[in-house]
Write a structure and sequence with these properties.
Shape: globular
Structural class: alpha/beta
Oligomer: single chain
Number of helices: 12
Strand content: 15-25%
CATH topology of the largest domain: 2-enoyl-CoA Hydratase, Chain A, domain 1
Helix content: 40-55%
CATH architecture of the largest domain: Alpha-Beta Complex
CATH superfamily of the largest domain: 2-enoyl-CoA Hydratase, Chain A, domain 1
Number of strands: 9
Length: about 350
């Protein structure tokens, strides 16, 4: 037992030393280079090639010699026949939205890149969307970015495998075709705002809070002041106004939808959402991609920001230390359990 304790203490000291050295190196590297504005770049991944590779590998492993020979012959004929044939492109985007919708910064760059090369009425865009919603202005901008695709005469399909609720559904309903997995969460056409109030705690501790504003409704509800009925009423009006704008937007995008029955703030699983007209089809993004791969050349489009060397080093060091700590902890824990 004493040996294990000493062993663990030695490893902890060693890790501390590595962390200290790594931090010093990162600081030196950061100081040696003046900060430069971050520049992003567009990355293209050939998803058609990946899907075809999976298919060929599987067939090579499962077909007998005769069938494999026959398959290779058919592939050569097909390749020769389609040699001069240019398939329309399908551009795939991923949007995994956070509460503040900060991912819209990358989305706008990706869409701009696509619009510079895509052929109207020929090429298509598929967005794999996952978001439980968030700030109105952020998701409103994200929906407007998607509208740019349609305005450019490009067909837009949006696939929801897990969740597109509230602001996420605001984005999703822009699609020409909205596809949902059977158990994906869809809807939540509503608006929510909540704020804590510490005024009673401040009063109890004889702490004054002062706030000076110009304009009757410059501030309605506050975290530290005493909220009034008039302020609550004004805040409720603003929430209702936002809800009306949300509903108006849904009506424009999906005019056949019975809005009164779904704009209650509730959400539904994909199967029910299809019955209510919130989505157009039940499927997964994987099946949609497989279906499109027959007629389209598929590219995944991603905007990335180049990280400076010092930042890459810091991230790599952090990941290595985390793995080392977990490994040491697991070994020590196992040793104690077996003893």
């Amino acid at each position: 037992m004493e040996f294990l304790y000493e062993y663990g203490l030695f490893l902890a000291k060693a890790l501390t030393f590595v962390v200290a050295v790594g931090a010093i190196i990162a600081l030196i590297a950061g100081a040696a280079h003046k900060p430069k504005p971050k520049r992003g770049e567009i990355e293209l991944d050939d998803l058609s090639e990946q899907l075809d590779t999976f298919k060929h590998q599987f067939l090579y492993d499962t077909l007998n010699k005769d069938n494999l020979k026959k398959y290779n012959k058919e592939q050569k004929k097909r390749a020769k026949k389609n040699d001069d044939k240019q398939k329309p492109n399908l551009y795939v985007l991923d949007f995994n939205g956070s509460m503040d919708a900060r991912e819209v910064d990358s989305l706008r760059e990706e869409i701009t890149a696509i619009l510079t090369i895509a052929k109207p009425k020929e090429d298509k865009v598929l967005l794999r969307l996952e978001s439980g919603g968030g700030v109105v202005h952020g998701y409103g901008l994200a929906a407007s970015q998607l509208q740019r695709i349609k305005d450019a005469d490009l067909n837009l399909t949006i696939c929801v495998d897990k969740v597109a609720a509230s602001g996420g559904y605001m984005m999703a309903c822009v699609a020409d075709k909205l596809v949902s997995a059977p158990f994906a969460i869809i809807g939540s056409i509503g608006v929510i705002a909540q704020i804590p109030n510490f005024n009673k705690i401040l009063k109890k501790n004889d702490i004054d809070f002062e706030q000076i504003t110009a304009g009757e409704f410059k501030r309605t509800l506050t975290m530290f002041g005493e909220n009034t009925d008039k302020a609550r009423e004004k805040f409720s009006e603003e929430i209702e106004e936002t809800h009306e704008l949300f509903k108006d937007f849904i009506t424009v995008q999906r005019p056949a939808l019975d809005l009164a029955s779904v704009a209650t703030g509730e959400h539904w699983f994909g199967t029910t959402a299809l019955d209510k007209g919130l989505v157009d089809e039940l499927s997964t993004s994987d099946d949609i991609l497989l279906a499109h791969n027959k007629e389209n050349q598929i590219y995944k489009v991603k905007f990335t920001i180049k990280k400076p060397l010092s930042e890459k080093f810091a991230i790599g060091l952090s990941s290595s230390l985390e793995r080392a700590f977990i490994s040491v902890y697991s070994k020590i824990r196992t040793a104690f359990i077996t003893k």
